Amino acid sequence: MNKSRPSTAELVEKSLKKRRAAETRFQWFGKASVAVGLIALVVLFTDIIGNGIGAFRQTYVELDVVFDPEVLDIVEVNEEQLTLANFNGVVRKALLSKFADVSGRKEKRSLYAMLSYGASFQLRDMLAAQPELLGQRVSVKLLADDDVDTYYKSRNDAEPFKGRMSEKQLSWLATLADEGRIQLRFNTLFFTSGDSAEPEQAGILGALLGSLFTLLVTGMLSFPIGVATAIYLEEYAKRNRFTDFIEVNINNLAAVPSVIFGLLGLAIFLNFFGMPRSVPLVGGLVLTLMTLPTVIISSRASIKAVPPSIREAALGMGASKMQMILQHVLPLAMPGMLTGAIIGMAQALGETAPLLMIGMVAFIADIPGSITDPATVLPVQIFLWADSPERAFMERTSAAIMVLLAFLITMNTLAIWLRRRLERRW
Predict the structure, then answer these.
(1) What's the first-to-final CA gap in the chain, in angstroms?
(2) N or C: which end of the chain has fewer CB within 10 A?
(3) In whole angstroms, what is the distance from residue 99 CA to residue 348 CA?
């Protein structure tokens, strides 16, 4: 007996069930993708914050220091004598007075190594600010060495990181800790000093100012040039093969790897024009070349979004084309232009490869004061610290990444806020 063929309604219902099932699977795939992305983001931020949070605290050792004029070998406090004063001798005398049983050159070197080389600079700055301290005994919290700092922060872990610390040093540190002479304080040096070969003295101020000067040059060049280019292409340029060629190349440049712009800057600004290496001026010029396509594309899109009726009304009221563009089109397109410029600047802030090509990878301890002073930028500073063998630099690397991410998130948030605040919907 032949089975009856399914009716049209049954076929439609079967087809609808398949489509609903496919749509449900697609929704679950989308939700799973979002969940995986969020989990990866949480893991990334947890790892960075977990590794870097310790860099915002620094270990200090409290000692009774005597500013002995004989040890310092100074008669009065002035700049010349402070420069030549033996502050290391004062620090060593304070340590030896605390641990009187230490003898022998090897033990003394181990004891002296528990404090940073920066401890002597602390005492110099104190005496320069308070000359009346000469000849007096004061209690001072001195900067600890990076190995001491790393061990003290990990002392409660299952396996504290001892690093290069000997058993003698661990016993001395335990004595100081029992007496309450070891303290963790907010690491102001991380934000107020430049790079250093000693992790406990290393800071990001030089890299931050280098990034600021570099972005200043980039913004002052890329925004006006990009906006002017967009206005010309949208309002003045005739549609022909030449303008089509320009548009295609602008779109292609937006996808060019950033290291290519570094090579271009190396060939033009350094080799041809002979400009100095590792200065924010050259870095800003290179990043201007890299961000120009982004600024031009976003500016053109903003100009296109302005309704033609605005142009027609302005021209109908007797405005010239220049007046129509500057007084009507440009103000309405400015929110989108600013958004594109901020996004381009945020992209430039996180770039490393093009700046490596122009020599901004050099070790620079001085704080830059202008766009022509040698400097590095925050991403390059992170790259340099990540390559350092000391354990303490791992904390600084993660902490610098946290600062960089904070700047990037702030800039992107500002771009979103500006777009929503100023944008008009037609």
Answers:
(1) 67
(2) N
(3) 53
In degrees and rounded to multiples of 5, residue 149 shows phi and psi of -60, -45
Three-class SS of residue 149?
helix
Largest CA distance in the chain: 122
pLDDT, mean of residues 131-150:
91
Please state, in angstroms and rounded to a whole number, the distance separating the CA atoms of residues 91 and 122. 10
CATH number of the domain bearing residue 320 = 1.10.3720.10
Instruction: Examine the pLDDT at 228 and tell me if it is beyond 90.
Output: yes
Separation of alpha carbons 237 and 240, rounded Å = 9
Q: How many CA atoms lie within 13 A of 270 on its CB side?
A: 22
Is 332 part of a structural domain of the chain? Answer: yes
Q: Specify the pLDDT at position 157.
A: 81
Q: For residue 387, tell me if it sits in a domain.
A: yes
Amino acid at 15: S
Question: Cα(393)–Cα(198) distance, rounded to whole angstroms?
Answer: 9
Residue 312, exposed/middle/buried by CB under 10 A (0-12, 13-18, 19+)?
exposed
Q: What is the pTM of this model?
A: 0.86
- Give the total number of structural domains in the chain: 2
Same-domain pairing of 303 and 379? yes
Q: Is 402 helix (H, G, I), strand (E, B) or coil?
A: helix
Q: How far apart are CA 90 and CA 133, in angstroms?
A: 13
What's the token pair of residue 157? Answer: 């872990």
- Tell me what pLDDT residue 2 has: 53
Q: Which DSSP category does 59 fall into?
A: E
Residue 426, pLDDT above cutoff 60: no
Statement: residue 424 has pLDDT above 70: no
In 113-190 the beta strands, taken as DSSP E runs, fall at 137-143, 182-186
User: Could you say which of 134, 157, 187 is where a domain stops?
Assistant: 187
Residues 211 and 325 in one domain: yes
CA distance 203 to 94: 27
